Amino acid sequence: PTMAHSKALLVLENFIGGKFVPCSSYIDSYDPSTGDVYCRVPDSGKEEVEAAVKAAKDAFPVWSSKSPLERSQILNKLADLIEHDLEAFAQAESKDQGKTITFARTVDIPRAVHNFRFFASSILHHVTECTEMPTVGCVHYTSRAPVGVAGLISPWNLPLYLLTWKIAPAIACGNTVVAKPSEMTSVTAWMMCKLLEKAGVPAGVVNVVFGTGAKAGEALVCHPDVPLISFTGSTLTAQRITEKSAPHCKRLSLELGGKNPAIIFDDADLSQCIPTTVRSSFANQGEICLCTSRIFVQRGIYSEFLKRFVAEAKKWKTGNPSDPTINVGALISKEHLEKVRNYVKKAQAEGAKILCGEGVDPLSLPPGNQKGYFMLPTVIAEVKDESCCMQEEIFGPVTCVVAFDTEEEVIQRANGVKYGLAATVWSGNVGRVHRVAHRLQSGLVWTNCWLVRDLNLPFGGMKASGIGREGAKDSYEFFTEVKTITIKH
Ligand code: NAD
């Protein structure tokens, strides 16, 4: 709040029908690394959403009738323009979200660029189905068409990365969109809007309304002219979206939270497993839906693993996100930092051991970052499976390590949460890797690696981690309506 007087704040505007339009009220957005307000985000509501949906509806007939090749060329152009400004986007993402500049430069923005290139390419390669019934003289075939105006709602952890993972397939398929990024991380979406015209995206094809979930998000979900909603965020919000969209029977894609296990057998290659599991626990401050937060280690290697894992975790440096040597930046908000810290306190109260990080090691920050929302990578041991730290999504730099004895036991325990997004399995035994992967209740299983993605293949969770999948074919199916046509000859 103090900064409002000293420096001009960045003020964002909604992007509707190809134009930036101011809003009647605004929300403060904080720089998580300093705790200062530095940006004002439109506090959009029904009126702004109405205007955006109208613009998207008006743009639909022309955009949907373009050929996939024409749309593909525009998506590629947009990818080039974002890539050209990669450094500016990375700086903005880091400042807005608190993530390290290194992560923004190497993961967030390159992936946003790749999302457009990937769908620009994949849209050219889909084929529909055809069957024949010679005895009755018929052929059947399917045809796919864009649905209309897609509502896209994304979270704060990987802002441009996840928003473009929705925008790219939606418009590649010929839909027009109204997107609402998280009110806490809106800047890079606004920057992208500045490039749309130059890329050749016609006015109204991509509209962005900024604001809170309760106001702008809900207005989008409830709008009768938005037949499909693609949402990434928390399970709680997904429940609300499901309720609110039920009267309209909307098509929903829900990518939600996780409580992801890593299962480490005694024949695992620890020299690979330990650094990767430290990364899977603490990358992006643990604020990735795929982050590991329950580590099951087979008893024979438990104490060695713990010693080496903690030593490796301690190497991760926490501090000013704009310093390229830093591994852990700031958490998204003061409230979120408090929530994450409270989990550590609860674990302690239950008798668990905090082996490093929060409350154990000193956190020293540069003078300019004293009021930022920082927390050290924290490792908890001797925690019970029933503990909230082992059951609930913490979404911060906190991971729990526990011992197990048998394969059967660890499968039961790994599956013993309400979530089912991603799991990792570490073992040198091929048979075991397959057996365990098949039995885990998890939309994604990585063995002897983490976060290696082929965007062609389905991404998404089971149980409370979501409904639906995204990927080349899955996104195409979600963002198109299929029709079966029968021809008698
Ligand atoms: P959130 O659910 O609070 O918010 C996500 C988005 O929904 C934001 O844009 C928010 O403004 C909006 N929103 C909130 N209430 C709404 C409502 N009533 N109607 C419509 N929109 C509403 O989630 P978050 O805190 O921003 O993100 C963190 C969560 O996202 C974590 O649970 C994480 O696991 C999950 N996540 C999942 C994936 C995945 O692919 N499965 C990826 C990243 C994050």
TrEMBL record:
It is found in: Cytoplasm. GO terms for cellular component: cytoplasm. Residues 25-485 form the Aldehyde dehydrogenase domain. It is an enzyme of class 1 (oxidoreductase). The active site is at E255. Keywords: Cytoplasm, NAD, Oxidoreductase. InterPro entries: Ald_DH/histidinol_DH, Ald_DH_C, Ald_DH_CS_CYS, Ald_DH_CS_GLU, Ald_DH_N, Aldehyde_DH_dom. GO terms for molecular function: aminomuconate-semialdehyde dehydrogenase activity; retinal dehydrogenase (NAD+) activity. Transmembrane segments: none annotated. It catalyses: 2-aminomuconate 6-semialdehyde + NAD(+) + H2O = (2Z,4E)-2-aminomuconate + NADH + 2 H(+). Pathway: Amino-acid degradation; L-kynurenine degradation. GO terms for biological process: retinoic acid metabolic process. Its EC number is 1.2.1.32. CDD domains: ALDH_F8_HMSADH. Pfam families: Aldedh. Catalyzes the NAD-dependent oxidation of 2-aminomuconic semialdehyde of the kynurenine metabolic pathway in L-tryptophan degradation. Belongs to the aldehyde dehydrogenase family. This is 2-aminomuconic semialdehyde dehydrogenase. It comes from Sitta europaea (Eurasian nuthatch). The lineage of its organism: Eukaryota, Metazoa, Chordata, Craniata, Vertebrata.
